[in-house]
């Protein structure tokens, strides 16, 4: 049910995206305390992004979850994902925004129905 969508202007050709996906999936599940079997991570590269007037490496993310989010949890998620992006894609933590959405189960489709 947690879904993390990340867009970055970094070109992902030659990047080990599998390690980014697996680390992000593991961290989201651990921090939100949801089964990793329900976690989805989407990573899009080479997206035109300007941050602070420059096109230096940057990223934007949105995390949608049915519960599990709070001020404290969101800070931990922001830190964990920013650390992954900095270490794997050289996106500085200061050039990454992450938006959080806590939604009702009836607003999240899965398996031909909703949660």
UniProtKB/TrEMBL annotation:
Annotated GO molecular function terms are: phenylpyruvate tautomerase activity
Q: Which Pfam families match?
A: MIF
Signal peptide start-end:
none
This entry carries the following GO cellular component terms, namely:
extracellular space
What superkingdom does the record give? Eukaryota
Q: Which family does it belong to?
A: Belongs to the MIF family.
Q: What is this protein called?
A: Macrophage migration inhibitory factor family protein
């Amino acid at each position: 049910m947690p879904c993390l969508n990340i867009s970055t202007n970094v070109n992902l050709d030659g990047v080990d995206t599998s390690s980014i996906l697996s680390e992000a999936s593991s961290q989201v599940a651990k921090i939100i305390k949801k089964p990793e079997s329900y976690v989805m991570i989407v990573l899009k590269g080479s997206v035109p992004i300007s941050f602070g007037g420059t096109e230096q490496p940057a990223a934007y993310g949105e995390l949608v979850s049915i519960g599990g989010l709070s001020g404290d949890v969101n800070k931990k998620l922001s830190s964990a994902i920013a650390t992954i992006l900095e270490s794997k894609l050289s996106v500085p933590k200061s050039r990454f925004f992450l938006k959080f959405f806590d939604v009702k189960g009836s607003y999240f489709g899965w398996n031909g129905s909703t949660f």
